[in-house]
Amino acid sequence: MIGVPADGDAPLDTRPATPIALDRKTRARAAVAGSVGNLIEWYDFYAYAYTALYFASAFFPEGDRTAQLLNVAAIYAAGFLIRPLGGWYFGRYADRHGRRAAMIASVLLMGAGSLLVAILPTYATIGAAAPALLLVARLMQGFSTGGQYGAAATYLSEIAEPGRRGFFASFQFVTLIGGQLFALLVIFGLQSAMSEEAIREWGWRLPFFLGAILAGVFLLLRDMMHETAEPASSGEDAGSLKALLRHPRAMLVVMALSAAGAVTLYTFTTYMQKYLVNTAGMAVTDASRTMLVVTFLFLLLQPILGTLSDRIGRRTNLLIFTGGMTLFAVPLLGAIAEAKTMWSAGLFVFASLFIMSFYTSVSGLFKAELFPASVRALGVGLGHAIASAIFGGTAEYAALFMKQMGHEQAFAWYVSAVCAVAFIVAVRMREPKAHGHLE
C-alpha cells in the first residue's frame, strides 16, 4: 500500500497505513469526525486573533492603538513559537500510540487554553499578571495547535480513499478555514447584538467560553474515529527524531513550502482584518463583513482544488501557489491598501486567497506523502510547526512593526521573497502523489 521512496529518502517503512479495512461510509464518517475536531481547534486559535481589536486595551492599556496591537501580536506570536514543541510531542505520540488519541488530547488542551482566556482578570484588576497569564493561555493553545496539524493531516490522508486523497485531505483546510469563519461569525454576531463598548468591557470573553464548551463536546464524536496506524511495537524508533533525520530532504521541502504557506495565510486572513482597519481605513464592522464573505469563498475553493490535485498532481498546485504569490503579493497588498470600497477590497483579498488555495487544499496531504507511516505525524507536524513559528507567527508582528517604522510596503516584498524561495523548492521536488509513501 505504501509506495516508493520520495526524493531519495531512506528505505520505506512497510507497516500498513491502515491496519483495518474500512468501507466508504466508515471512511467518510471518520473523516467528518476528525474534521470537526480540527474545526474546533482552529476556532479556538483564531478567536484570539479576531477579538484582539477589542481586548488589546484591557491587557495593555498604555500607548496608541498600533502599540497595543503590537503587544497583543507579540503574545500571538509566542503561541506560534511553542508550536514546534507541540509538533514534536504530539507527532511522536501519534506515531507511537495513534493519530486518534493525539487529536483528542490536543483539542482538549486547546479548550483549556480558551477557558483560561475567558476568565482572565484585566490589567486594571491584577496589573502585569494579566498579560502574563494571557501569555500562558496562548502557550497552551500554541502547544496544542503544533500537535493538531500533524495528527490531522496524517489522519485525513490515511483515512482517505486511494485516488481521492486530494478531496478528502482538503477538508483539513476546509475545517481550518471553517474555524476562522466560525470565529468571524461569532464576532459578527457580537457586533450585531452588543454595543462596541460592551464588547470591549466583557463581550470579547464569550467566544472563548464557547470554544471551551465545544472542545468538551468533541468527546462525543470520538467513537466515530477509527485508528489508521498500528501502535509501534516495543523497541521500535517510530516517532523518534533519530528516525525522522533519515529523511532530511523531505523535512526541508516541508519547511520551505510551509514557510511560504504560513506567511501568506496569516497575512491574508488573520492580519488582514487589522490591515483593512489600520491601513485601508475601513471601519471594524465593515472589515469583519468583508473577511466573512471572502473567507467563506476561500473555504469553498478547498475541495475543488484538492480534487484538481488528484488529476494534475500536488507539485503543480504548489508551483501555481508559489509562483503566483512571488509575482502578485506586492501589487495585491498595495491594491488592498488603496481600496475605496468594501467590494473592491474584498475582490483583492479574494484574489490573494484564490492563489493561496492551490497550497492550502493540499497542504497536509503532500507533506504526509513525503514520509513513511512510522514518522509521518512527527515529520508533518514538526516541519510545519517550525516554519509556521518562524514565518507565520511573526507575520503580523513584522507587518505592524514595519508600519510603525514607516516602511509598510517592505513587508509585502518580504512575503514575495519567502514565496520565491519556496518556488525554487517546488520546481526541484518530485511529484509526491507518484513518488510518495501513501500510494
Describe it for me?
There is one protein chain. The chain has 439 residues and is an all-alpha fold. The protein has one domain: MFS general substrate transporter like domains (Growth Hormone, Chain: A), CATH 1.20.1250. The chain has helices at residues 24-59, 65-81, 83-97, 99-119, 123-126, 129-159, 165-169, 171-193, 196-201, 206-217, 241-244, 248-268, 270-278, 284-312, 314-338, 342-360, 363-369, 376-392, 395-404, 409-428, 432-435. Helix 2 (65-81) packs antiparallel against helix 18, helix 4 runs antiparallel to helix 6 and helix 12 (248-268) runs antiparallel to helix 20. The radius of gyration is 21 Å and the shape is globular. The termini are close together. Mean pLDDT is 84; it is low at 1-20.
Write the layout of secondary structure elements.
Layout: H1 24-59, H2 65-81, H3 83-97, H4 99-119, H5 123-126, H6 129-159, H7 165-169, H8 171-193, H9 196-201, H10 206-217, H11 241-244, H12 248-268, H13 270-278, H14 284-312, H15 314-338, H16 342-360, H17 363-369, H18 376-392, H19 395-404, H20 409-428, H21 432-435
Helix pairs in contact: 1-2, 1-4, 1-6, 1-8, 1-10, 1-13, 2-6, 2-18, 2-19, 3-4, 3-6, 3-18, 4-6, 4-10, 6-17, 6-18, 8-14, 12-13, 12-16, 12-18, 12-20, 13-14, 14-15, 14-16, 15-16, 15-20, 17-18, 19-20
